[in-house]
Request: fold
Amino acid sequence: MEPPYIVIIASGSEITAGRSLDTNSGWMANQLFELGWKVKKFITLPDDPDLILSELQTLKELTKSKPVLALMTGGLGPTEDDYTLETVLKLSGKKSYSVEKAKIRLQRIYESRGKQYSDILPTVMRQTHVPEDCKILDNNVGIAVGFVEPIGVDSYLVCMPGVPSEMKEMFTRRLTPELKRIYPRENLVQKTKWLWNIGESLYQKDFVEAHRDELFSGVEWGVTANRGYIKCIFQSTDLAKLEKIISELESQYPKIISDDVFTFVHEELVAKKLTIAVGESCTGGLLGKKLTDSPGSSSYFIGGFLTYSNEMKESLLGVPSDILNQFGAVSRETAEAMVRGISEKTKADYSISITGIAGPDGGTDTKPLGTVWIGIKSPDGSIETHSYIFPGNRESIRENASNTALFLLYQSLKQRKV
Amino acid sequence: MEPPYIVIIASGSEITAGRSLDTNSGWMANQLFELGWKVKKFITLPDDPDLILSELQTLKELTKSKPVLALMTGGLGPTEDDYTLETVLKLSGKKSYSVEKAKIRLQRIYESRGKQYSDILPTVMRQTHVPEDCKILDNNVGIAVGFVEPIGVDSYLVCMPGVPSEMKEMFTRRLTPELKRIYPRENLVQKTKWLWNIGESLYQKDFVEAHRDELFSGVEWGVTANRGYIKCIFQSTDLAKLEKIISELESQYPKIISDDVFTFVHEELVAKKLTIAVGESCTGGLLGKKLTDSPGSSSYFIGGFLTYSNEMKESLLGVPSDILNQFGAVSRETAEAMVRGISEKTKADYSISITGIAGPDGGTDTKPLGTVWIGIKSPDGSIETHSYIFPGNRESIRENASNTALFLLYQSLKQRKV
Reply:
C-alpha cells in the first residue's frame, strides 16, 4: 500500500488568535516520524463549524486520488464552541451514540466528586459520543472519547481531544497500534545521539556529507538544534547500518557526544544513591529547576544557593572578597570557590557552580557577553572548571549554561561508570 | 472594504517533522488580533516547492470570491531547501531582481567580517532578490528581504523570513503600516487584566455572560488560560466602554485581579530600589529563575536558597527540626520559618518561601498533591503565609506555585504604593 498523505489538523480559536500555542501537531509529527511517516501539512482552524467542515470535505475529496490520514485534535470538549463531533456527523451523514464504557467512567468520576449521575449536563455527556461504525479510542486520562472514522479507500479521519495529556496517552496507547495495523510496514529502528556546542551546519558538512555515500544509503537522518546541543537522529530498517553510523559518530566526536543527559543523570544519580547541590549566579535557579523537573529527584537533589550578588557569594558560599576583587565574579577562581562553598555547606557528593554574563549588559573585551564558568566537584573530591562563550540572548545563554552543566555532570558520572 | 480572509503559512520541514515548534504564526495572529483582524487558518508546509505552489494557487483562486491576505514565513534563506522566492515567481510569472539597498547591506556585512564582495555565494545573494513590482519589506536584522506581492483584487501574499527576530522586526516596523494603509479601519483599543486561580469557564459564566447585554456590545473579548491565572482581553473602538468593563471587573474580583505581574514586579522593585531573596523547596529554583528572566534583575534579586531536603531547610535556613517534625515540611509553620531564615541570612527587603507537594507522589488525605504554602516577608517586617491546592501535574503545580508567589509580591508592592 502507498504510504498515506498525512495531514494534522488542530482546531481552536485560542490558537488562531495567537493566545495559545499548538504543541500537539509537532508532537504527533514527531511520533509519526518515529513510525516512519512524514507529515505533508499542518492546518489550524478556529472553532468555526463551517470552516472545519469545508476543510474535511476537501480532504475527503482528496481520498479519491490517494490514501489520506487526517489527525485532528480539539473540539471534543463540553463547551458551546466544541464542534468536532457535529462536523464529522455532517461529513459522514451518520448518527452518534454514547459509548457505554465512557458513560460508566464519567458516572464514576461524578460520584467520586459527590455528584449524582443526573447532575451530568447533556454537553458533558456529549463527550462520550462517537459516530456509528467507527473505531473507538478510549480516553484513560480525561472524559472525551476519541475515534477513527473511515473517509475513503484506505483513508481515515482520527479525532482526539486537544488536552495534550489526554491526546498523548490516546495516541501512544490506542492510536499507534491501530495505525500499525491499518498501514503495515517494516519495523523501523531509531537511534539518537546528542552533540554538544557544535553547529547544525558544521555537523551536516563534516559528518553527514562526508559519510553520505559510505554510511547513509537506506538511512533517514534528522537533526534538531537545542540550547547547547544538537540532537542527531538516524532511522532505518537495518539495525547494523545504524550501529555503524553511531560508532563512526562516537569516534569522530568523542568529547562532545552524549545520550539524553536529562534521563541519564536522573537514572544514574538514583541508581548510585549520589546526592547533588548547586550554586547559581547568572542562571538564577534554572539549573536547580532542571534537576528537579523529574519526579523522584528528591532522592538526589538536596538543595543549593542562588548567589546572584557578590555579597551573597561571600556570605552564603564563603567566596573570598579577594578573589571577587582580583578575578571578578565571572572567573575560574570564583567558580572554584563557589564549588568549595557548596560542598562544605551541603556535603553533597556532587557540587556544581555556574557564574557568567547573561546580559544583555555586562560584557567586556576580555569577558564578552555569554562568558560562563562552570565548576564541578566530584565525589572523589576533584574539582574541574570549564569556560564557555555561549551565543544568543539572555534566555539562550542561561539555557546553554544550565544544559552544559548537566552535560559536565553526565561526563563525570559516565567516567565513574567506566 | 470587506475585511480580508487571512491565512498564515509557515514553511519548514523541521516544523512538519515535529523537530521545531512554529511560534511565528501565533505571534502574527496575536499582532493581527490587536489590529482588529481574525485569522481564518494556519497552514504549515514542508520545504517542498510543489506543495507550496499548490497551496498558493488555491489561495490565488480564492481571491476571485473575496479579498485574501496570506502571510508566509520561511524559505527565504540561503540554503538549498529555501523555495519561497522561486515558488512566488512561478505563481506570478514574474522575474526577480536584486534590491540595491539590500545588496549594499550584505556587502557591508561581508566587509565587516573581513571578506570580499566577490566571496558572496549566489545562494546568499539570492536573499536580496524580490519579484518585480512588489512592495519591498526591508530587513534590518538579517539579510533576506521580505515583500508584499499582489495576488488578486485587494489580495496580497506577504513573504517574510522565518527567523523570529527578523520576522518580528519586519512585521512591526514595515508590514503593519502597510497593512493599515491597504485595509484602513477605525483605531482599536485593547485592555488586558489578569485574574488569579479562577477557571476560564467560571469567569465566562460569572462575568462575560452575566454582563453581556449591559457591557459587551461593540466589544470583542478573549481569554487565555495560564499557569495560575487567566488573561482577560477586551477590544473596542470605544475606550469608554473598555474602561467601564475594567471597572466592573475590578469591583467583581477585587482580590484576584492584577496587571501583568512580571512587568509590574520588575519595574516596581527597580523604581523603589527594593531587594528580594527567595527560599524554594518544591519549585527547586523556578521562582529564582523567573525573578532573573529580565535584564536588570540584578538591581533587586540578591539570591536565595534551594532547600529541597529537610536537612537543608534546617542547616541553610535554620528551620527548627521541631517544626519540621511536628507540622511537616509542607506547612504554614515551615513556610514562615523559611521566610525568617531567608530574611536573616540575606537582609533582603522582601523574602519569599515556597514549600509544597509537586508530586506525583507525596500527597496525603490532609495534604493532597498540589498543596503549597507560600510565605512572604515585607519590608515592614510583617509576614504573611498563604496556602493553595494547585491542579495538574508536577510541572503545572510548580508553575502555578512560582507564578502565584509573584502575584503575592505584586499585591504587597501594590499596597505599599497606595
